[in-house]
Amino acid sequence: MDKRFPILEWLPKYSKEDALGDFVAGLTVGLTVIPQSLAYASIAHLPPQYGLYTSFLGCIFYIFLGSCKDIPFGPTAMVALLTFESIQNKGPEYAIVLSFLSGTIQLLMGIFKFGFIIDFISGPVASGFTSAVALVILTSQVKDLLGIPTSGSVFIHTWSSIFGNIHHTNLWDAILGVICIACLLLLRIGSKFSLSTVDDGLKRSKIQILGNRFFWFIATSRNAILLLICGYIGFCFFNNGLVPFSLIGSVPAGMPSFKMPPFSFEKVVGNATVSVTFGEIVADLGSGIIVVPLLSLLENTAICKAFADGKTINPSQEFLAIGVCNIANSFVQAFPASGSLSRSAIQHSSGSRTPMCGLYAGGMVILALLFFTPYFYYIPKATLAAVIIAAVIFMVEVRVIRPMWRSKKKDLILGVTTFIACLVFPIEKGIALGITINFIFIFHQVARPKISIERLKTGQGLEYLMITPDRCLIFPSVEYVKNLVNKQSNKQKIPVVIDCTHIYGTDYTAACAVECLTASFSSKNQLLIFYNLKPSVGAVFEGVDPKDLEVAYDEQGLHHALENKTMQSP
Amino acid sequence: MDKRFPILEWLPKYSKEDALGDFVAGLTVGLTVIPQSLAYASIAHLPPQYGLYTSFLGCIFYIFLGSCKDIPFGPTAMVALLTFESIQNKGPEYAIVLSFLSGTIQLLMGIFKFGFIIDFISGPVASGFTSAVALVILTSQVKDLLGIPTSGSVFIHTWSSIFGNIHHTNLWDAILGVICIACLLLLRIGSKFSLSTVDDGLKRSKIQILGNRFFWFIATSRNAILLLICGYIGFCFFNNGLVPFSLIGSVPAGMPSFKMPPFSFEKVVGNATVSVTFGEIVADLGSGIIVVPLLSLLENTAICKAFADGKTINPSQEFLAIGVCNIANSFVQAFPASGSLSRSAIQHSSGSRTPMCGLYAGGMVILALLFFTPYFYYIPKATLAAVIIAAVIFMVEVRVIRPMWRSKKKDLILGVTTFIACLVFPIEKGIALGITINFIFIFHQVARPKISIERLKTGQGLEYLMITPDRCLIFPSVEYVKNLVNKQSNKQKIPVVIDCTHIYGTDYTAACAVECLTASFSSKNQLLIFYNLKPSVGAVFEGVDPKDLEVAYDEQGLHHALENKTMQSP
Predict the structure, then answer these.
(1) What is the residue-averaged pLDDT of chain A?
(2) Which cellular components does GO assign to this protein (chains A, B) (predicted)?
(3) Beta carbons of A470 and B504 less than 8 Å apart
């Protein structure tokens, strides 16, 4: 069986311990997903309720299809940013249709096993892109943190707009925001802290254990706690008739209705009603229809790898699962989503056992939609901005610079180039540039084999030239190798042997070049022998009927051929 | 020295024999270039004199910079077609600016040694493209052959238009055209024929030799002779007041004026005069500015290879030479040009010695411009169409199908796909599709190494798994290899050895995967050894500080490590 339904593997052995672990992890993730949903909706420039709409149905569908126990499906900062870049403030209808289309493309790629295309984004490009995304998102939140208007979605444009408006800063927003960020960062550090830091092998006292658990809980649900506190502060100010902060404002209560995605809809422009067709939506979304589904899988696959524990991961199955979740989500007015790295870490450390966690996290979002939306009104925008900023700054992968530098400097240059390109251009163009440069590396590697040239002697003292290319001979390298062989053979008029040990693949273009080589060697009466030719490669060469193709399969045969043939020729 | 002026190599040793050979070859090519110039201008949908303008200055400049003695620079069928696809009947000004821009790009690519990019067009793609170009050109001439109007520049559209108008066929044009094609084909066969076909080693009589030479001359200058005869027929009909054929019509006499290319110009539209700016011209030419210079080099490089006689060719020098010729040409109102394969064959077989031939061919075109243009009036269009058709049908490379099939079937499929794509879409899109598919082949080859897996034993009978990838380990293949190693090691819980003999290159992404592998093997207490790791590859792996990286450099060391380490572990 093809493991299209991973649930069939784990559900039959589902135990009480699994249930408890999943319940605790699910609730903990739920405490994070609610504030993140509200916040990430603002990255996509959508009203906050759309974040909640994105957070319950998909993560329940993921239980059935997901292959990784630590993926909490829902809105993520990166996908929200990509969504914003695609829909460009054109309204939630576009986001919902984008979720449907992204899901469809992901589903198709999953069914046709196109998961491998994630492999074509190398580590350095992914790091550069992710780091830039983090800075772009951080930048997009500065406006709420300072309470100023900004424009532009490209990093450098937004910053120039921020500096242009910085004198409009609302001090209350700014102070609250900075305090919130400080609290979140401190609690984050605290989450890695325990009351008894010495690993002394002794049993800890009950108080220590309880204290550690309590501390861990506070640190893990820091976003929710912060929202509660700041919401209360907002509420108090509001009740006293003072609103020094920008607040979220009213969030519609209740569940979204279950209905078809708005493939065409009517829009009010001025006094007129304009109908927007499906074709127009698709045209407006443009390349986003490809970029969003592919790059959101980048984040998702990174999570799978991070928590795989040596298990084989199957990106195609993840494509399929995420695709179905996004399609389902589009029926409850959600925007595109994926697995979220920040919540994954929480889910993993909270002791998740199976994807069942999604049930409890989704359930909490449903409860929030049904009962808590009136209270969201008072949450200051600066607090949400702080939640986002405190989450994304750790996406900037400063830690990879040193190993990349020591491992392969070219890769570091590539990573930095991608990073800068994503800040200077729209991010999808930035990563496209990075991928293109990386492809050029591959082409260069294919086109320019390393070729060693040695002057050797047979037992009888006959000198010959041994030319050894180190990789397969296919069209981009054919002319290079041919020219080099010609040049060397013209310089030193002795028999030439091409060592084909490392030539494991070839093509018609190479066969033609070989034919050309044998003909020109034959015409200048110089001996050319192909040594250790693999049968599959030899068959391709034979296909073009090269005249005088001399082949030798071991050293003895080679020396024999060299000595015999040289004797025959004048 | 960089050989930027190949003339410095051959001119100092220029002999009387060289001069005679070049003179004869130059005149023979001149007899071909005049009818071809008139004809190829019609492929570009330009008035015939522009073909002549394209044929004299560039081929004189080529003498100084060209690296191949058999290249007669001038209009070619393929480049004329590409020019037409770019300028789309917008007028000769566009063609002249295109010649300047193409030349500039070729010059820059020559200076910066970008000649290697021709290597990225494989044999099958080039064959499919060239064959399709031949059919598209042939199709474009059917209108003149039948004397009917047609529309559409894409193969399939033109043919549907031909069948729609076939009842308008002018019988006189059609009959003359078919007779002309038949004569040209017969004479072409004749050019490979000699009076004494038996190679009997005896001296031939003087009459035989003279006869052979005469026959060869007639066959080689068949285009010019046909034009002369048909022009005379047209003249006779015209003088009797009968014009049953479409004639070329008046060709302006005299040399073109030497002036700047029309970077901006005024155009009469209806009653108004509209000025066209350089920006508008560039925008209208669009991708043609890249496609024309690159693909015209494809033809040129193919000629160099065909007549290289085992010498190393330097595509960058050809880029540079052709670039300068096109720039110079744009000052005498020429359209883009390149080396022509059909005239190359004539130049080669006429005994050319150096690029000096261009002087005589160019001289003849100048004479034609000065004195013969009035006579061109009477040449029937069907004769020119016949000249083109008889030249291009031999560009359809049917002969490569059999060797391609026997050599590598995937390449044949690629060639046929490119061929069909060039007929169904505009040709530049067709070849782009072919190149893209070919690149996917490369990516697949890089991403999916062949990996052999063996179960071996040390001297002491310890079993281990030997995993040998056959090519370098870079990012697209990293996950594949890692997953395979994980899977195999989980299946058979014995020490695993990765044989790195063929891994000659790697990158940061691979290093991270290796780190991940060593960590997971270490955590499951299984031994993992990298065998025969090249120092350069090892250094990249070490960069990310993998824990427990075990390395062995020879069989003895490997067995020693296997036995020792296995003893240590529980």
Answers:
(1) 88
(2) membrane
(3) yes
B122 CB near a chain A CB, below 8 Å? yes
Q: What is the pLDDT of residues B68-102, one digit of tens each?
A: 888 889 999 899 999 999 998 888 999 999 999 99
* A436–B contact, CB cutoff 8 A: no
Rounded to two decimals, the pTM is 0.82
**By C-alpha distance, which of A294, A245, A235, A248 is closest to A109?**
A294
Is the CB of B310 less than 8 angstroms away from the CB of A524?
A: yes
Q: Beta strands A338-339 and A73-74: pairing type?
A: antiparallel
A123 touches chain B (CB under 8 A): yes
Contacts of B410 in chain A (CB under 8 A): 507
Interatomic CA distance for residues B384 and B177, integer angstroms: 9
Q: What are phi and psi for residue A445, nearest 5 degrees?
A: -65, -40
> Which ipTM was obtained for this model?
0.83
Angle at A228 between CA A227 and CA A231, to 5 degrees: 75
The 10s digit of each residue's pLDDT in A185-194 is: 998 887 766 5
Q: What is the mean pLDDT of chain B?
A: 88
Cross-chain residue pair A123–B475, CB shorter than 8 Å: yes
| A232 interface with B at CB cutoff 8 Å | no
Nearest chain A CA: its distance from B261 CA (Å): 35
Q: What is the pLDDT of residues B450-492, one digit of tens each?
A: 999 999 988 888 889 999 998 889 988 998 999 899 888 888 8
**Å between A475 CA and nearest CA of chain B:** 5
Q: Are A92 and A46 in contact (CB under 8 A)?
A: yes
Is B445 close to A505, i.e. CB distance below 8 A?
Answer: yes
Is B168 at the interface with chain A, CB within 8 A? no
Alpha-carbon distance of A423 to A446, in angstroms, equals: 31
Contact flag A541-B407 (C-beta cutoff 8 Å): yes
The 3 state secondary structure assigned to A432-471 is HHHHHHHHHHHHHHHHCCCEEEEEEECCCCCEEEEEEECC
Q: At residue A529, what are phi and psi to the nearest 5 degrees?
A: -125, 135
Contacts of B407 in chain A (CB under 8 A): 507-508, 511, 540-544
Among A55-59, B307-311, B403-407, the least confident range: B307-311
**Smallest CA–CA separation between A412 and chain B, in Å?**
9
Q: Do B487 and A312 touch (CB under 8 A)?
A: yes
Domain boundaries, chain A: 16-422, 451-568
pLDDT tens for residues A25-64?
Answer: 898 888 889 988 998 999 999 999 999 999 999 999 999 9
Which of A118, A480, A504 shows the shortest C-beta gap to B450?
A504
Q: What is the CATH number of domain B451-568?
A: 3.30.750.24
For the stretch B317-354, pLDDT in tens is: 889 999 999 999 999 999 999 998 878 888 887 888 89
CB contact under 8 A, B543 and A470: no
Phi first, then psi, for residue A415 (nearest 5°) are: -60, -45
Residue B95 near residue B335, CB atoms below 8 Å? yes
Q: Hey, what's the torsion of the CAs at B329, B330, B335, B338, to 10 degrees?
A: 40
- Asked if the Cβ–Cβ distance from B509 to A122 is below 8 Å, we say yes
* Most A CBs within 10 Å, among B408, B490, B525, to test the A interface: B408
In angstroms, the CA B442 to CA B439 distance is 5
Over residues A118-141, the pLDDT tens digits come to 888 899 999 999 999 999 989 988
Residue of B nearest to A411 (CA): B508
Cβ-defined contact of A520 to B487 (cutoff 8 Å): no
Please give the structure tokens belonging to residue A422. Answer: 């994503």
CB B266 within 8 A of CB B276: yes
Report whether B392 contacts B130 (CB < 8 A): no
